[in-house]
Specification:
This protein is α/β, with parallel strands linked by helices and 470 residues long. It folds into two domains: 233 residues, 3-Layer(aba) Sandwich (Aldehyde Dehydrogenase, Chain A, domain 1), CATH 3.40.605; 181 residues, Aldehyde Dehydrogenase, Chain A, domain 2 (3-Layer(aba) Sandwich), CATH 3.40.309. Helix 10 packs across helix 11. The longest helix has 19 residues. The structure holds nicotinamide-adenine-dinucleotide (NAD). Nicotinamide-adenine-dinucleotide (NAD) binds next to helix 8 and helix 9.
Length: 470
């Protein structure tokens, strides 16, 4: 029996391809079809055809998505190493990503919209039903290729839409394999993956046959996508960048939190939209926090994701590595100090030492922008109100966290964060059932849980008298 990966190789499209690099070596190890934007007309046309059947039978959808979840789990031994190879993350994290992808499919398979009746004293009742939108475009980045792909297609398909999905050109292979695996449970045309370089994504976002564009990526690209989708007035859901802060309170037990706080910043090599990207520590304990995090950073095993001992892999691509290097160099030039790391590792691939920065001024780009890599500034504060003002004083509003021993006090401070999700003594722990929505420039629309399902539906209202001619 051929493995899924072997089957994928045999089904590779003819035509032009682009190289896919292994970030642990910087060398090409595979290729993906470089599809032309003009191909989208036929692809979106097939997605529309498929939608006419797919939207009609909710029970068939539930059964198909459950079968797809089982297929994803079974393909884990193929999917996880391929994901690590092109993305860079440790294999254990790729396995978690595959498991989360299957879990999300299962969650949405069993979620159905509720028909509601509004009886407001009039003789006519309003019955609210929910209808799917049509073909949906999903566009995702390279940091969690499978998890984010499923965050797009699981709710869209469960709602009765079809999807054309475009992964990042940095990580097309595991997503192609995932789509291949999921499609074994679906009618043809329900889920189609397209791979290629820009302007493929721009053309997909502006395609007149697309009725919803659900995008995850950076804020600047999100703006462009929103402009492009305006051409056909398609609905837009944007999950964008973050610059999450962790606020440590006076009573925090530094030893207790160091490991968790460190991994909240450095998991997936810091390439998490909701990673902790800046820490605010009371001035009295600032030096202690810096040294505890730096010690943890120095002890971290950095290496290729496929090596069993690796705790942190490489940065995913050369452009992102250059961004991390620039932010770090600027922070040091601004008077900052690297308590650990501060440089690229002297080996092939895109490795950067986990870096804890102290004495960085508040205006430095590593504080004001999204570094999206293994670099963390720790800033001292003397007055909590001023710290909260600094935390909220950016255009970002994805998440934030408060760390301390008095949970009531921490919860009160968490309530003052201007963001979509706040945690106490944790960061970036998400439930499949919760709404996920960034505040300010970090997002438009709501994903996750039932809100994610309704984000892929439109209300259809029938007004009905209680008596025939009332
Ligand atoms: P990006 O915005 O550069 O690219 C995202 C996707 O958009 C890729 O598939 C890319 O090929 C495509 N794209 C590029 N230009 C396009 C265009 N003009 N029109 C349509 N599509 C286009 O982001 P990235 O560098 O791949 O990912 C990192 C960013 O993603 C970070 O800012 C991170 O915070 C964000 N992110 C956000 C979330 C969230 O849920 N809020 C989750 C993960 C990542």
């Amino acid at each position: 029996m051929p493995t899924h990966q072997q089957r994928l190789r045999h089904t590779t499209l003819p035509g032009k391809h682009f190289a896919v690099l292994d970030p642990a070596t910087g060398e090409a190890f595979g290729e993906a079809p470089d599809q032309h934007p003009d191909d989208l007309d036929a692809i979106v046309g097939r997605a529309h055809e498929a939608w006419l059947g797919w939207r009609a039978d909710p029970d068939a959808r539930t059964a198909a998505l459950r079968t797809a979840a089982d297929a994803v789990e079974a393909a884990g031994p193929d999917l996880a190493p391929l994901l690590t190879r092109e993305q860079g993350k440790p294999l254990a994290e790729s396995c978690q990503e595959v498991a989360r992808t299957a879990a999300r499919l299962r969650y949405f398979a069993d979620l159905t919209p509720r028909t509601e009746l509004i009886a407001d004293g009039r003789p006519v009742h309003s019955e609210i039903r929910w209808r799917p939108l049509g073909p949906v475009a999903g566009i995702v980045p390279w940091n969690f290729p499978l998890q984010l792909a499923s965050a797009k297609f699981a709710p869209a398909l469960a709602a009765g839409n079809t999807m054309v999905l475009k992964p990042s050109p940095s990580t097309p292979l595991a997503t192609r394999l995932l789509a291949d695996v999921v499609s074994t449970a679906l009618p043809e045309g329900v889920l189609t993956i397209v791979t290629g370089r820009e302007p493929l994504g721009a053309r997909l976002a502006s395609h007149p046959g697309i009725r919803h564009v659900t995008f995850t990526g950076s804020i600047p690209t999100g703006r462009t996508v929103a402009r492009d989708a305006a051409a056909s007035l398609a609905r837009v859901t944007l999950e964008l960048g973050g610059n999450d802060a962790a606020v440590l309170l006076e009573d925090v037990d530094v030893q207790q939190i160091t490991d968790r706080l460190f991994w909240a910043a450095f998991r997936n090599c810091g390439q998490v939209c909701m990673a902790v990207k800046r820490v605010y520590a009371p001035a009295r304990i600032h030096a202690h926090v810096v040294e505890a995090l730096a010690q943890r950073a120095r002890a971290t095993v950095v290496g290729p994701g496929l090596d069993p001992g690796t705790q942190m892999g490489p940065v995913n691509n050369a452009a992102q590595l250059a961004r991390v290097e620039d932010h770090t160099a600027q922070a040091l030039a601004d008077g900052g100090r690297a308590a650990s790391g501060g440089r690229r590792l002297n080996r092939p691939g895109y490795f950067f030492a986990p870096t804890i920065l102290a004495d960085v001024p508040a205006h430095s780009p590593v504080v004001t922008q999204e570094q999206f890599g293994p670099v963390l500034p720790v800033l001292p504060y003397r007055n909590l109100d001023e710290a909260i003002e600094a935390v909220n004083g950016t255009g970002f509003g994805l998440g934030g966290s408060v760390w301390g021993s008095d949970l009531d006090r921490a919860a009160e401070v968490a309530g003052r964060l201007d963001c979509g999700t706040a945690w106490i003594n944790h960061h970036a722990e998400l439930s499949l059932a919760q709404p996920f929505a960034g505040a300010k420039e970090s997002g438009v629309g709501v994903a996750g849980g039932p809100w994610g399902l309704y984000g892929n539906l439109r209300p259809f209202v029938v007004h009905r008298p209680q008596e025939p001619y009332q």
